[in-house]
Amino acid sequence: MRIMPTNILIIDDEEKLRGLLKRIISLEGYHVYDAATISSGLKLLETEPIEIVLCDVKLPDGNGVDFTGMLKEKYPKKEIILLTAYGNIPDGVQAIKNGAFDYIVKGDDNDKIIPLLSRIIEKLALQKKVVQLEKQLNTRYGFDAINGNSAAILAAKNLAKKVAPTNAPVLLTGETGTGKEVFAQAIHYNSPQRDSPFVALNCSALSKDIMESELFGHKAGAFTGAAKDKKGLIEEAKGGTLFLDEIGEMPADLQPKLLRFLENGTYYRVGDTIQRSATVRLIAATNRDLQKEIEAGHFRSDLYYRVAVFTIPLPSLRERAGDIAELAAHYLKIYSEKTNKQIDHISTEAAQALKQHPWPGNVRELKNVIERAVILEDTNTLSINSLPYELQQSAVASSMEHGLAAFHLATIEKQHIQKVLRHTNGNKTEAARLLDIGLATLYRKIDEYRIK
Length: 452
Prior knowledge:
By secondary structure, this protein is α/β, with parallel strands linked by helices. Helices cover 48% and strands 15% of the residues.
């Protein structure tokens, strides 16, 4: 179903036939332009949003078959149907080679025009959908998904953009939560492997035997519970990208098998004697210092040089503190939409608390903090009261240290009540007893301080 009318141009020097076609096509809901020559048609193409062209083969100022090639070169997304009074096979073949959608005989094939237009509309709609999906993929997985404008993150993005179009193995280093998988996905979706699978394995989450089976696959009967043959992730990622997260955790006796695969592209399923092959691009990540792991005998030096062809160090959130506000706003928008809330701002106090926090969990921790705060917040502004207790405490301590709210009684009282409530696991009667105040007073203060 067409939401907006499709714009069609008819180029034909026969005025009566042009008028007839215009009437027929207009009755189907299309917006139709017309021209008697190629030159006048080109002027319309330059100024109007025309998507489909119906063009006669023989025109006063040119040949429609030649015009097709010129049109597709200049406007590759526009479709053209050629009309001829006397069809011949060589012209038809050349027209299709030049990019025409179809080549039909005028008069005899008029009943074909509307179905042809419908097919073109379907094709154009599919192309637009593909473009839209590509934009969504880029927003979700591309470099646009990596937020921040600090020098540290821009340097990392620049390195990733340079290596993405190659097949070089990449090693992403940095603390936990710095966004290594986000970078890996961005590299994949901007690489020659983008149309093939992106497959990820966390090397710290599995035992040696299970990891080997997951990575290389296994043959039925290879071990207890192996009821049937199973493909490994290397086979699943064939032609695409294999992302090995926390590669520094890979068991020592599994490392030679991975090295062999990286060196010659061959491997064996567990319990199998058939040698298999696959071509994959490797992206690895680690929060360990692999050079120290080599010195300690935990990681093979030859494997390191294989996976660390191109190393990208990812900065911690402390190293890119200027990005905290942008990242917080980004996650605020995401989780507000997910929870159907309209939280548009972050209060000054909350923003300051976010900025002062050391973020040992980096971007992942910030993301989780904002998600929790959005769930707790009842207004359209994210307040400091919705942030975790430790962020509130550190904000108060920092304020006192800098003399911004030194010994503010209400702030101290609020923090003390929160501490006691945490101690009593939310038991307000017990909290009131420990605070030596009445239960009604405690409820009033909880409401006054918006304690959650």
